[in-house]
Amino acid sequence: MSEEKLTFAEIVLNISTDDLINMITQPYKEFLKRLRTLISKNPKLIKITLSNIFTMRLVGNKTHGDLAEIALTEFINQYMYDYKSEHIGKKKFRAKEFEEDIKVINEIRREEFLISIKAYGHGPLQLSTDKEFKMFPALQKIFGRKKEMKGNKEILKIFKNEAFLGLNFLNILPLIYEEKNKKCNIMVFDLEKARREAETIKLEPEGKGRKYPVFRFYNAKEEYICEVRYGGKDANALQRGFWTHTAYAEQYFDSLTGGWIDYSDNEILVKLFRCALVSSQNGHKDAIVTLQKDIEKLKGGANN
């Protein structure tokens, strides 16, 4: 008797939520391993790139965030030989439809996935904007009049709630800097560890500099893990979504750079931008040729 063939939908229905999440997120996890290996073997490449990205703060406080997207896209294309990347953050100057900024393709396995690039100072870090405003109302409904919830089993149920499932598919790559001490880090939030160790959720009222209440997650030692902010129609981008804190929750981050690395401002890069903005395309073409030769030298040094 021949085996009955299952449709894709039937296969999915027979897979647990956790297994389905692992199956979908595996290409991104493999990418992170490859990126970590590249950085460990050739730390100079990422140090140069991050220094150039954070130098853009000399141009404007928010300039580095937008340029980080195209810089990481080019970094992948130039130095990660089995991958290619495309910047999808802002098409024709229109607002982003999705939270992700770049598309990455594993050219060996033909797998595609999206990544959201975050360039933040060492401190509060927004992992999801929760644009549809689902998380906070879901917690309100679950809590009712309670101010606190204890027990990992109950909290795991919350993370499996439809309002929170989207967190599992957000591939967040945070570039974190500490401007005063000129150090930086690539820190990836470990959502699996956060879910596994969360033991308490507390509803913190407005006040102490907060305009709205917030749900905060803590581990068994009462150490901060993450939080869900209000996010209603009258809230701005900083008052909504799923957040954590790179200083308070550092144990829930995985550093791809192997810890903090020093960076320095590149004044020559700022001058290059100034000249580029008032020069012609012919000059830009000549500059690109020169810059590509330098990149090839860096590649050669990395291979030695």
Give the low-pLDDT segments. none
Query: In terms of structural class, how would the helical and strand content be classed?
Result: alpha+beta
Please report the number of helical segments: 10
Number of strands: 13
Could you characterize the architecture of this molecule?
The protein is of the alpha+beta class. The protein folds into two domains: about 10-265, no CATH class; about 265-304. It is about 40% helix and about 25% strand. It has ten helices and 13 strands. The protein has helices at about 10-15, 15-40, 45-55, 65-80, 135-145, 150-160, 160-165, 190-195, 265-275, 280-304, and strands at about 85, 100-105, 110-120, 125-130, 150, 170-180, 185-190, 200-205, 215-220, 225-230, 240-245, 255, 260. Strands 1, 2, 3, 6, 7, 12 and 13 form a seven-stranded mixed beta sheet that branches. A six-stranded antiparallel beta sheet has the order 4-11-10-9-8-5, covered by helices on one side. A hairpin with a 4-residue loop joins strand 2 and strand 3 (about 110-120). Helix 2 (about 15-40) packs across helix 3 and helix 3 runs antiparallel to helix 4 (about 65-80). It is globular and about 65 Å long. The N and C termini lie far apart (about 60 Å). The model has no long low-confidence stretch (mean pLDDT about 90).
Quick description:
With 304 residues, the protein is of the alpha+beta class.
Q: Main attributes?
A:
seven-stranded mixed beta sheet; 10 helices; 40% helix; globular
